[in-house]
Amino acid sequence: HGTKMVMGEDLGPYNAGPLWIWKPSSYDNSSNPEVVQSPMMKTPSNYPIAAARGFHYCKLLSPARAIEHILIDSLRSIS
């Protein structure tokens, strides 16, 4: 029946653009279920720079990665 994939807690916040951009999503496939975590960057609604208030950025799991998990990774046995 394969292993499951679940979304874990967000990583961060990485509130500097380059930190968030270069931080990859985390895939822990050594456990069952596999845990996916995404880096995030957010700003409060009272942020000093008006143009950047209330933003929340996160990285998404691509459909290709989901299909790869379903067809390949979920069928591997965990030792």
Short description:
The chain is α+β, with helices and mostly antiparallel strands and 79 residues long. It is 19% helix and 20% strand.
Blueprint (SSEs and pairs):
Blueprint: E1 5-7, H1 17-22, E2 26-28, E3 34-37, E4 40-42, E5 56-58, H2 63-71
Parallel strand pairs: 1-3
Antiparallel strand pairs: 2-3, 4-5
- How would a crystallographer describe the biggest sheet? 3 strands, mixed
Sheet with most strands: strand arrangement: 1-3-2
Q: Compute the average pLDDT.
A: 88
Structural class: alpha+beta
The best one-word shape is elongated
Overall number of strands: 5
Tally of helical segments: 2
Unreliable stretches (pLDDT < 50, length at least 5) are none
Give the percentage of residues in beta strands.
15-25%
Rg, alpha carbons: 16 Å
Distance between the termini: 16 Å
- The helix/strand order is EHEEEEH
Q: Fraction of residues in helices?
A: 10-25%
| Quaternary structure of the protein | single chain
